[in-house]
Design goal:
Length: 567
């Protein structure tokens, strides 16, 4: 009986973070349902105090950008016409109690929207949170506007964010933050800069209130680590010195280390994150070009920010059980990464996850994940096998580019299996990730390849011959797919001969071969990307194929130099 009680206690403790997040969501929504701003402020003040641990590292999935409930907020809007620019919170505002207001001035045809960004209020230091309108000393005024670009053909706008602060009893208005996002280089319709999420905006705003830094000196390494106070803890924001092996401390001056926001150091090869770290967040948060090993703690719950892991030597990423979220574009292009292992606790994947694939051959999503985000493996590189669990219910947008040979493994009758059939993907019934093939990249002579389900996919040719004939078989199996970049930057190559076994030619299978004269395709492949050869980087190359080949239909539309040829 005693053992059973211990097991139940352990299970309860493991579930506490998730329970706290759920109860926070319920409490926050209850507070915003109040009838007046004063009632909302009082309720939110209590929520902020009770759920400080959740707010320290999470809670961003709760949408708290709420329409103002009464008109009194209109009287709080400062006149920003002659605002003074300041790099930090002025002295007269450091102890002020704030009410935040968010104005979104949209382009013509859209309605302007004024909200109370409770997500910001909840995360202010306790001393800076007003309990009522009467209690408030100042306003934190956030604006989102558009700035028309004159250098585009057509309509394009920068999206501009500004943060102002002013005392309500008069005095200067200060502009503390001015940042913008630019529109894409091309696209359809009116183009605008990307909208920043509440979390992205808060990352900028929080530095105004939590700007106290702590330092930990390492005399033997001639270095120091810098930490920023975040409220109930602190986060690592800098590391100078020589550290082949660096273990992040659990606390600094008695304050627990709960996050990593910036660790940039070219000497770190082995990185150990201690128990107590709950988040890694920020653009290129871990920027260690020689990193070969990283140890994650069981307490890590969230990884957010673009390109969190960048330019590493690391070939394997194995995340901890307990990790719940990997944010938008946090892990999208790791050229050296051959294997990524995701935990069973993962519940949120942001758009752009592994959008450029990995150098390895397989990716398995864990059971329990319900949604696959947009731009998941849109360029799969060498990934040939993907496992999608039965728990997947929602598959968004551009997922698994249709012009590649990647196979989808999923349980029969699952939503993922139905999606694969609808999208024309190669589908293989598979009950678990362990049952899916985990192929390896092999080499035979000058050819690198992958063997899956009795077929060989050519990955690259590394020789220097002028005449190259791809063999019918590699690894004892027929060569059926010529993958993207298989023949790339080969200045010596003049003539290239494919075997009759080919069934697919991927995008830019042949590219940047400036002296190439002829590509010979002696069959009719099932799938041929219209740009399997990059015309612009392959000189005056001509494609030779039989009259009834799928190749023959391409020149009419895409001007591919083609000549009828019978092998």
């Amino acid at each position: 009986m005693k053992r059973l009680l211990i097991v139940l206690l352990v299970l309860l403790l493991c579930a506490l973070p998730a329970l706290a997040e759920d109860t926070f969501k319920s409490a926050a929504y209850d507070a915003t349902d109040a009838d007046t701003t004063d009632e909302q402020l009082a309720g939110m003040y209590e929520v902020a105090s009770k759920y400080s641990a959740v707010l320290e590292s999470g809670g961003w999935d709760v949408d708290l950008d709420i329409e103002a409930v009464d008109s009194i907020l209109d009287t709080l809007i400062p006149d920003v016409t002659d605002a003074q620019t300041a790099d930090s919170l002025p002295e007269e505002l450091k102890n002020a109690k704030f009410i935040p207001i968010y104005d979104q001035f949209q382009t013509t045809g859209y309605i302007d929207r004024r909200t109370v960004p409770w997500a910001f209020y909840l995360r202010l230091p306790e001393a800076n949170r007003a309990k009522s309108i009467e209690d408030a000393d100042a306003v934190l005024y956030v604006t989102e506007t558009f700035d028309r670009r004159g250098d585009y053909i057509g309509t394009a706008y920068n999206r501009v964010y500004q943060v102002f602060a002013a005392r309500l009893d008069g005095g200067p208005v200060y502009r503390l933050i001015h940042t913008l996002t630019t529109p894409p280089q091309s696209g359809m319709g009116a183009l605008a800069g990307q909208r920043l999420s509440q979390e992205d905006l808060w990352r900028r705003i929080c530095n105004l209130f939590y700007n106290t830094q702590l330092e930990l000196l390492y005399p033997e390494q001639n270095g120091k680590a810098t930490f920023r106070l975040t409220g109930s803890g602190c986060c690592l924001v800098g590391l100078d010195g020589t550290f082949p092996r660096y273990e992040v401390p659990t606390e600094v001056e008695g304050i627990p280390v709960t996050g990593i926001e910036k660790l940039r150091n070219s000497t770190v090869e082995e990185l150990i994150l201690p128990e107590g770290i709950t988040y890694i967040s920020g653009y290129q948060a871990i920027d260690c070009v020689n990193l070969t090993s990283i140890q994650f703690p069981s307490t890590l719950k969230r990884i957010t920010g673009e390109d969190v892991f960048t330019s590493m030597e690391l070939t394997t990423l194995t995340f901890n059980e307990g990790l719940e979220e990997i944010g938008k574009k946090s892990i999208d292009d790791e050229k050296n990464l051959r294997e990524i292992n995701l935990p069973s606790t993962l519940r949120i994947l942001g758009s752009g996850f592994l959008s450029y694939g990995i150098s390895g051959t397989w990716v398995a999503l864990p059971e329990g994940l319900t949604r696959i985000p947009d731009q998941f493996l849109t360029s799969t590189r060498n990934v040939e096998c993907v496992f999608l669990p039965a728990s997947i219910e929602d598959i968004r947008g551009n997922v698994l580019n249709s012009d590649n040979s990647t196979r989808v493994y999923a349980p029969e009758g699952s939503a993922a299996a139905a999606w694969a059939a609808e999208k024309g993907k190669t589908y293989i019934p598979c009950e678990s990730a362990e049952d899916m093939p985990h192929p390896i990249i092999e080499t035979e002579g000058d050819f690198t390849y992958i063997v899956v389900e009795g077929e060989t996919m050519l990955v690259s040719y590394t020789g220097a011959d002028e005449e190259v004939t791809v063999p019918d078989e590699l690894g004892g199996c027929p060569v059926t797919v010529i993958k993207q970049g298989s023949f790339k930057k080969l200045d010596n190559l003049k003539n290239l001969y494919f075997p009759k076994t080919i069934r697919q030619l991927e995008l830019w299978a042949v590219t940047s071969c400036k002296n190439l004269e002829g590509i010979y395709v002696p069959c009719s492949p099932e799938k041929v990307h219209f740009s399997f050869m990059s015309n612009s980087s392959c000189g005056d190359c001509r494609v030779y194929a039989p009259a009834d080949s799928t190749i023959a239909a391409i020149p009419e539309v895409y001007k591919l130099p083609w000549t009828e040829w019978e092998p």
